[in-house]
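Re: How this chain folds, sequence and tokenised backbone to follow

Filed under: protein folding, tokenised backbone structure, sequence and structure records.

Contents: The amino acid chain and a row of whole-number tokens, matched residue for residue.

Body of memo: The sequence and its backbone structure tokens, given next.
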Amino acid sequence: NNGGKILLLADIAAEAQRLYSPVNQRFTPSDLKGLDKFWGFTFNPQVVIADLDNSITVNTRKKGVASFAQDVIQFLITDRGINKNEPITENLRSILVTSVTPIKPIKNHNSEFIPLLKSSSNSALMPSLAVYENMNPSDILAQFEADGIVKTIAARIISKNKKSPFEIIVINDSDLIYDDFWMQNKIIDELQYSVSLNDNINLILNALDALSQKNDLISLRKS
């Protein structure tokens, strides 16, 4: 606890592992062992953010028949939810996330809390069991009731305590780093190309560069 610079990807459920693993893994939340309190925020694995305004349309295929619904647990953060006043995020256009929990600053903590990514106000907190039990998106949507509160999903926290200096960038999703969340493979003239769909990887690279004080590289990575 003597300081340092950290990029932290915390998650209530690393869903991508289940998608890509041959074994159906049991979901377990990140265990920060109280370090979230030291760093000045709270991590709550009991809830998940559902966001209707940013939801994406998914195929919830039932009995072999295509059935489409809005997935409020997996959603796309665009300009309104991206902090355009921070170098890390000012040039980003869209970030796809899933099963995220809010980051809340601890009151009177000796640190600066800077939100980077936020949900819309047409969002709600739902029990994380919705994710753990793999509920159908249409069933989750039926239980959705917006609370009108914007929720922080990623933040930059800088210590003001000279005896315990630190800078941490917290993103409450680990799935966003997987290829399918930000890129798509396309075949053109029998050659395969990777096409970027979202700015997930740019968010990670920008965060690492900011922690390394390499803002000149961030400016080169414009969408």
In short: Helices lie at 15-20, 35-39, 129-132, 137-142, 200-211, 215-220.
